[in-house]
Specification:
Elements: H1 2-10, E1 14-19, E2 22-27, H2 28-31, E3 36-41, H3 43-46, H4 56-72, E4 87-91, E5 94-99, H5 101-126
Antiparallel strand pairs: 1-2, 3-5, 4-5
Length: 132
Amino acid sequence: AALRLLLKRASQGISYAVFRGVVMITTRSQCGKMVVTGVYSLDAILGRAKASRHSPKYHRITWNLMQTIQKAFDRNSWTDNGGLSASMHVAFGALIVTATPRVQVHVTNFLEKMELLRLQQKRRRSYRPQRP
């Protein structure tokens, strides 16, 4: 809140972005162009599919995941959609995303929710009610 107030008083043309605890201050026009790279482990999300990174199932799941992210977060910034600033690929069981800090925050939150859902599904499958 204090940072917003300070920047508002300083200049209308200044903006900031926060990514993984780092505050980046720049002009509004540059803020939209500034990109950072985040590396996200997919092990918790992929579960059994991670066992074979060369299988068609693994490629289908990771492709669907990337398509979902591209459609959900700043659709026009992704190079696959004709944009100039955001890209991603999968390598060695990790999702590597180069995008604006704002998109990175959305991707981080999305993947954390995916991990929680996977954990909940795993718990439901392993739950066995005790018989009296």
